Every structure is written in structure tokens, then in C-alpha cells.
Amino acid sequence: MNPYTSLWTGVTPGDGPQNFHVVLLDNGRSSILARHTERQTLRCIRCAACQNTCPVYRQTGGHAYGSVYGGPIGAILTPQLMHMEHAQTLPFASSLCAACYEVCPVKINIPEVLIELRAQVVNLERKQTARAFDLMYIGMRIANSIFASAWRFRLAQRMGRIGLRLFTSKDGWIHALPSLGARWTMTRDLRGLPDQTFRDWWASRPKEKP
Ligand code: SF4
């Protein structure tokens, strides 16, 4: 008997429950079933033997796994139930010592599933890095063209100042920016730009006579 398994009696006229309702939640399990290596995860009876034997789980405890499933079974089940982006460190929470496989009463080959999931994480990260690299490349090309010309630099400065002024509060600070800028203002405020740039001040200063 384990904490995840309950036994119910059936319906008996005049004794016990008169109705019995079973609600089945798929929660992504059909897609796990369709995958050749990962489908064995669904054999788990939640006995927790793999948790108790796992050297990683014994050091980190259950909260580190970020879901109700901790230990080796959590490391393979959670990334499959959630989107991988939200649990992509979990397949690496293992030394691959295979102690979990040895104790598992239903013989789930957890190390095999872990390795399969690690391959998926690597592919995902490759795509994420490629996307980030594309954005960075475009950003650098634009910056290169702006910095290469004095008038383009002045124009970009002016447009940036006009744009930022729209978001500057009366107290002189920017508390919320849209789009990518929101990632900055989500955690900290940004000081608004001064009325005069250094270039403007330099051009307007009284010239010394030679
Ligand atoms: S030992 Fe096997 S059956 Fe028990 S919780 Fe771990 S994966 Fe599930």
C-alpha cells in the first residue's frame, strides 16, 4: 500500500455507496503513451521506492523537483506532463546510477527515459539558442549601422528620447515599458532621460576664444 493508491468498494444495494463516479483525466498521458521509450513511465504505481534509493533525491528533497512528483519518477514524469520548457532541468537531476531501475517493482527503465528526455532538452535548447542568436544578430546589424554614421546616431538618439518620454512618469522615472523592455521594468525602474544630451550641451556651451 502506498499513499497514491486507494481502494474503493463497488456499489452494493442497501449497503455502502449507491453511485460510483469515475473521472478520468488524460492530462497529456495519451501523448506519453504514443512515445516508444517514454510510455513505460505510465506503468508507475507511485510506490516511491525509486525516491528512497535515489542519491539525488536524498540530498535535495521533494520540493526541488517543482511538482508533486519528486525523485527519479518526478524527473521523467513532470517534463512529460508539463511543457518541457518548464521542467528542462529535471532530466539532468540524476547521476544515472540506475538504482531506481533496480528497485522499481514494475521495472521502469528510468535511466533510459532520462537519456531520451535529455536528448529532447538538447534539441530544444539548440532551437532556443538559434532563435536568440537570430534576434541578437539582427540587433547587432542595426546597432552597427547606427554607430557607423554620426547623423544616424543623432537621429536614433532623438527618436529614442521621444519614445521614452511617452513612458516617463512625472517623477522622472520609467516604471513600465512594453515588449522586450518590460523584462527590465518588471523588476526595476529605469531613470528617464535628461532633457539635454551631452552632445546638445557640448554644442551649446560658450566657445572659448583661441
Ligand atoms: S520505483 Fe517504479 S513504481 Fe515505484 S515510484 Fe518509482 S518509478 Fe514508480
Structure description:
- The protein has 210 residues and is mainly alpha-helical.
- The chain has 2 domains: 1-148, Fumarate Reductase Iron-sulfur Protein, Chain B, domain 2 (Orthogonal Bundle); 157-210, no CATH class.
- 46% of the residues lie in helices and 2% in strands.
- It has 9 helices and 2 strands.
- It has helices at residues 29-33, 49-53, 55-60, 71-81, 99-103, 110-147, 150-165, 182-185, 198-204; strands spanning 173-174, 190-191.
- The site of iron/sulfur cluster has 13 residues, from helix 2.
Structural class by secondary-structure content: mainly alpha
Q: How far apart are the first and last residues' alpha carbons, in Å?
A: 95 Å
How many individual helices?
Answer: 9
Level-1 CATH class name of the largest domain: Mainly Alpha
Keywords for this structure?
Fumarate Reductase Iron-sulfur Protein, Chain B, domain 2, single chain, two-stranded antiparallel ribbon, 210 residues, elongated, binds iron/sulfur cluster, 9 helices, 46% helix
What is this structure, in a nutshell?
The chain is an all-alpha fold and 210 residues long. It has helices spanning 29-33, 49-53, 55-60, 71-81, 99-103, 110-147, 150-165, 182-185, 198-204; strands spanning 173-174, 190-191.
In terms of topology, how is this protein built?
Blueprint: H1 29-33, H2 49-53, H3 55-60, H4 71-81, H5 99-103, H6 110-147, H7 150-165, E1 173-174, H8 182-185, E2 190-191, H9 198-204
Antiparallel strand pairs: 1-2
The structure holds iron/sulfur cluster (SF4).
